[in-house]
Design brief:
Length: 324
Amino acid sequence: MITLKEIQAPILEDIEIFEKKFRASMKSSVPLLDTITRYIIKRKGKQMRPMFVFLSAGVCGKVVEKTYRAASLIELLHTATLVHDDVVDDSNMRRGFFSINALWKNKISVLVGDYLLSKGLLLSLEHDDFRLLKIVSEATREMSEGELLQIEKARRLDIREEIYFEIIRKKTASLIASCCACGAASTDADEATIGKMRLFGEYVGVAFQIKDDLFDYDAANSAGKPHGIDIKDRKMTLPLIYLLNHSDASEKRWIINTVKNHNTETERVKQLIEKVVSNGGIRYAHEKMMEYRENALKILDEFPGNESRESLRQLVIYTTERNK
């Protein structure tokens, strides 16, 4: 399988320049803020979002100064949402590091998230990047709606398949869609092209989330995600929804009772996972993931071939074949 380093090859220099600009965009005259933002930069992940921005720009034109601002804007707003999420979820770890709230408590974490949000807004406004700001603001709105919809539905565990797809489209796919749309918009592409890249990113984002859901049922996964954690968190993922849709009334009651009231009982959760596997839930979810992947690649094939398009194709494949 191709590595992320190989996929990055056409934009390696762009990523390096971006990292310097991103660090500069977070600077503050307040020493505490600078300490925290340095910590945030130190624990950065795979740089997937900037990769989608730069490769999308390369597909639609070329990387320019506005592209770096687009990538920084997305990273600032996304990092702000992650800092706030850790407070909401009372989470002490993120990507193997202590979360901001674990080290500096909730009050400071919320203020840091607000600061990052304001830096993103100002970065756009200072350069009149209204188109970029609109794209990312819409994604931020959708992410909030997706989270709230999931919370609302989790109370009753009544998530139908169409609701599940609405949740992940808003919660996860809207961010990747905004990366691709911003990459296109930074090259001054027309609205039709931006819309096409946004839809491409949405399809990739849905496939990405289904892959994440599948990790929960793979005892051998190396995703750093404990087996059955979504069930323990009472999350209704696609394999589980498929099982519910193909069970009789008494079986449904047992499934919902397990998720709602027995989700910390190892043996019962294991039994539920075995039912999901044996009844075809994993196979069905994998088929849906591949369907979204193919839809994304069909859109990509409508653009002229170049190095960026090939790397973007490989990045789509990577998101659905990764093991973490």
